[in-house]
Design a protein that fits this description.
Number of strands: 26
Structural class: alpha+beta
GO biological process, one term: chromatin organization
Pfam family, one: Pre-SET
Helix content: 10-25%
Shape: globular
Subcellular location: Chromosome; Nucleus
Protein name: Histone-lysine N-methyltransferase, H3 lysine-9 specific suvh1
InterPro entries: H3-K9-MeTrfase_plant, H3K9_HMTase_SUVAR3-9, Post-SET_dom, Pre-SET_dom, PUA-like_sf, SET_dom, SET_dom_sf, SRA-YDG_sf
Radius of gyration: 26 Å
Length: 657
DNA sequence: GATCATTCAATATG
DNA sequence: CCATATTGAATGAT
């Protein structure tokens, strides 16, 4: 292969059999998977029912009959109470799952059209993403459907897919909207617009309200938009803090709370005990002028009151300020709580406010409490347990990287020299060099005179907050020849690590990498630093003795997120990096067959050529302390150096290289 | 079923 | 950093 830069390097590397790329998966079992908190029953039968049995665990106050508010379906399926008889009355005639191939992925749109993308997924549905000219919708493309089974009850894969599609559309709309509003003004919210698309196409899950956990969502999962909670059925109102549903008790119906979002909006005091939450009722504020009056025992307030008396579980999502992206909020699913007591208080304006004391149910994984611990490690009020070195980079990164081991006695990985970035002694030759930009104040979206935007096919690849917006095979960042400042948004991968990372000993995969900070999907995490390995065309072999190799020439399963790319992620020319002797945090990232991190080639022009870098971005929102992993891919010669994969995912290929 | 009111959003800006 | 204005979507209530 020639080393010259092909100016058409963005084009797919060759014709691809699309039926293979978008191969329809085998019919997924639609058995809902439920966590098993103490005292809970979960249904996991080969014949799944749309009902979820969530009996509250006693004891109950005298005179209160426990009842079992089964999921109330919007499709007017019968509700029932378990104490009527042993037979729960479940309707076993579930709708037959629609074969996925009924919704075959449409043929991709005219190739190379940067303005047209649609969210196409291997599992057989697509959501059209609006283009620049017609931001409301685009009616041309065929659309499949998200089948009823997935809409009714989620599983991990379904929930992840819904969130992925949402994110994809939202980021794309953000990119278009930033460019548009910079010239025409009036920023319209991409998060809402994306939700609307998802809703109208029916791409959502757990779409009927239910009490208790929601399948496919784990305690500790994080969300960056209220709409995400809505789309996965965790909390349906787009703004309101209390979600409730009406449940039939013998002949009458009464409201019961299903979930709350605690965002600190009603100046509740945030006590030290993370298992206790004091929550204010809703209402009492005139939204227009901020005028206040007494809250009434209606809607959500009434529902919480009923849940208190019934002893029902309430899901709790905690809203926390995003320290990295200041004004926005992160929502942590903190699991199930029970309401312990309620009372009314006078607020500052002298109006009555309902108060509810909620207590977290025991036996659930750490979630909000973990955030609090991390906060203490950070501000020094508590020591990070099992800490070996506070900063293994010795200051080479802008953020310290802790080294910890709470598994065994090993004191650290084999020594290596820490380098924060990939250094080029000699850039790649390029026949075609553009001149750099003159964006002294940083590249701005919608600036048609900016050459960097042109190189990126008309739109800046990053948002104002530094989140990757495109799904392109190659990103052109500002380089040496550009006049943009180091903090230009088109230099995201050059600005260094923004998250507080730590290297830790895993249970069975040696050392690994994780983050104290929550990571928003699309965020830049780090680049692959190390020594460039000389490759003479075709004769490079993955060295068996070097497990710190990054080879951009490996084959990678196309991620669903690269919906518009019918080729696997590929660098424009061969690049092999060894981090054995020198490297950065990237060398500790382990392999997973269902990764939460992906890599992306990035090109920067220098005075006498181009430099290719490998940058890692988050595929989805990553909660704190969840291991960061990417797919190592398959080398051209996949016969040597095979290792057993322990990633444990449903899609595990069994081994990696 | 259409319309309205309610709601611990999310941004941009001063 | 906070306050304010602006634009808004889902859902239950009417």
């Amino acid at each position: 292969m020639e080393q010259g830069l092909n100016s058409d390097s963005n084009a797919p590397s060759g014709p691809i059999d699309k039926s293979k790329v978008y191969a329809v998966k085998p019919l997924r079992s639609l058995v809902p998977i439920f966590p098993d908190p103490p005292g809970m029953c979960s249904i996991s039968t080969p014949n799944p029912t749309p009902f979820v049995c969530v009996p509250p665990s006693g004891p109950f106050p005298a005179g209160v009959q426990p009842f079992y508010p089964f999921m109330v379906s919007n499709d007017s399926q019968p509700t029932t109470t378990k104490n009527q008889s042993g037979n729960t009355g479940f309707d076993s005639s579930i709708p037959a799952p629609v074969p996925l191939n009924a919704f075959r992925t449409p043929t991709p749109h005219v190739n190379g059209d940067a303005q047209n993308q649609s969210g196409q997924f291997a599992s057989g549905f697509s959501v059209p993403v609006p283009d620049a000219d017609n931001a409301s919708n685009s009616g041309k493309r065929t659309r499949g459907q998200f089948d009823d089974g997935r809409r009714a009850n989620s599983d991990k894969d379904t929930a992840a897919t819904v969130l992925l599609v949402y994110d994809l559309i939202r980021r794309r709309l953000t990119q278009l909207e930033e460019a548009r509003s910079n010239t025409s003004g009036g920023f319209r919210r991409p998060d809402l617009k994306a939700t609307n698309l998802m809703m109208t196409k029916g791409v959502r899950t757990n779409n009927s309200k239910r009490i208790g956990h929601v399948p496919g969502i784990d305690v500790g999962d994080i969300f960056f938009f209220r709409m995400e909670l809505c789309l996965v059925g965790l909390h349906t109102p787009s703004m309101a803090g209390i979600d409730y549903m009406s449940v039939k008790v013998t002949v009458n119906e009464e409201p019961v709370a299903v979930s709350i979002v605690s965002s600190g909006g009603y100046d509740d005091d945030d006590g030290d005990d993370t298992n206790v939450l004091i929550y204010s009722g809703q209402g009492g504020v005139q939204r227009r002028d901020g005028q206040m009056f007494d809250q009434k025992l209606e809607r959500g307030n009434l529902a919480l009151e009923k849940s208190l008396h019934r002893g029902n579980d309430v899901r709790v999502a905690r809203g926390i300020k995003d320290t990295i992206n200041a004004p926005s909020k992160i929502y942590v699913y903190d699991g199930l709580y029970k309401i312990d007591e309620s009372w009314t208080e006078k607020n500052k304006s002298g109006c009555n406010v309902f108060k509810y004391k909620l207590i977290r149910q025991p036996g659930q994984p750490e979630a909000y409490s973990l955030w609090k611990s991390i906060q203490q490690w950070r501000d020094g009020t508590a020591a990070r347990p099992a800490l070996i070195i506070p900063d293994l980079t010795s200051g080479a990164e802008t953020q310290p990287v802790a080294l910890v081991n709470d598994i065994d006695g090993e004191k650290g990985p084999a020594p290596f020299s820490y380098v924060a970035s990939l250094k080029y002694s000699q850039p790649f030759q390029s026949s075609k060099l553009f001149s750099g930009c003159h964006c002294v104040g940083g590249c701005q979206p919608g600036d048609i005179s900016c050459p960097c935007i042109h190189k990126n096919e008309g739109l800046l690849p990053y948002s104002s907050t530094g989140v990757l917006l495109t799904t392109k095979p190659l990103i052109h960042e500002c380089g040496q020849t550009c006049q943009s400042p180091p903090n230009c948004r088109n230099r995201i991968s050059q600005a260094g690590v923004k998250f507080r990372l730590e290297v830790f000993k895993t249970k069975n995969q040696g050392w690994g990498l994780r983050s104290w900070d929550p990571i928003r999907s699309g965020s830049f995490i780090c680049e692959y630093a190390g020594d460039i390995v000389k490759v003479t065309a075709g004769d490079f072999e993955d060295a068996n003795d070097d497990s710190y190799i990054f080879d951009a020439g490996r084959y990678y399963e196309p991620l669903e997120r690269v919906h518009n790319s019918n080729s696997s992620m590929k660098a424009p020319f061969p690049l092999v990096i060894s981090a054995k002797n020198s490297g950065n945090v990237s060398r500790f990232m382990n392999h997973s067959c269902s990764p939460n991190v992906f890599w992306q080639p990035i090109l920067r022009e220098s005075n006498n050529g181009v430099c290719l870098h490998i940058a890692f971005f988050a595929i989805r929102h990553i909660p704190p302390m969840q291991e960061l992993m990417y797919d190592y891919g398959i080398p051209a010669k996949a016969d040597r150096g095979k290792k057993k994969c322990l990633c444990g995912s449903m899609k595990c290929r069994g081994h990696f290289y």
